[in-house]
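Sequence in, structure out.
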Amino acid sequence: MNTDTKLSKRLSFWLRHKPEDAGLTLTNGGWVEVQDLLHAFNRQNIDCSRAFLERVVASNDKKRFEFSEDGQMIRARQGHSIEVDLGLEGQAPPEFLFHGTATRFLPAILKDGLKPMSRHHVHLSQNRNTAIAVGTRYGKPAALTVAAGNMHAAGHVFFRTGNGVWLTDAVPPDFLTWKAE
């Protein structure tokens, strides 16, 4: 694992799940002062400069992190298991979205729907290839099609993060389809 990946994983852990592990306190919106984050890396004997942090944030393939407009704060865009309010506005999704998973989870998902599990929202992709890539992380991949337009019409709320990930509280099984490759 390269240094950028290690730092990205540590950022995810601290900014999405366990800020207290680094002695950090997130704002209600999930933000932390960049200077405090750099001090946390230093306290744990992890070499991280502001320039290195900026490079990792800019080069992260999923654009998981963002700096505040003034560059003084940083946060994870989604995927939190801790309580945060990302300040996202509900919006109408495209007609279809996709969710990547492993085929071994399909029976339960098709029966019970998609649930956020340890996170606050179900994560959905706007294209099937991204969903397949996500599913690959968990085993033999499967991409579920979510009838997001119909869900929205039925009163379900959707949010879109700055990196294009769609979020919703849950997806009932009636709005899911899967077609074997």
